[in-house]
Amino acid sequence: MNHYQSFHPSMFRQQESLPDQWVAYIQPLVDRALDEVEEGINLTHLFQEFILSGVLVGQGFLPDEAIEQVEEWEKGESKLLQQSKAMSE
């Protein structure tokens, strides 16, 4: 699977402003973050997870792929994500 998708303006509706196009594009990240808040996920961890996902989206990942990548890091190589997930509010 190619995680890097080239950003192309034709992906978006031309009548929307660029910021609105990006907001619409990252909506899956927002929806997922809101779900995790309701589940009681530690906010430090939540911010780390979704800011990292946003960085990956900026690097060309699709939103769902970005979330999956961060979750893989959390389960494996990122000790800081593991520590923040274990923290209590």
Number of domains: 1
**What's the multimeric state?**
single chain
**Structural class based on helices, strands and sheet pairing:** mainly alpha
Number of helices: 5
Count of extended strands: 0
Task: Describe the model.
This protein is mainly alpha-helical and 89 residues long. It has one domain. Helix content is 64%, strand content 0%. It has five helices and no strands. α2 runs antiparallel to α3 and α3 crosses α4. The radius of gyration is 14 Å and the shape is globular.
Q: Can I get a quick summary?
A:
The protein has five helices and no strands. By secondary structure, the protein is mainly α.
Relevant terms:
89 residues; mainly alpha; 5 helices; 0% strand; globular
SSE blueprint and pairings:
Elements: H1 18-25, H2 27-38, H3 43-58, H4 63-75, H5 79-86
Helix pairs in contact: 2-3, 3-4
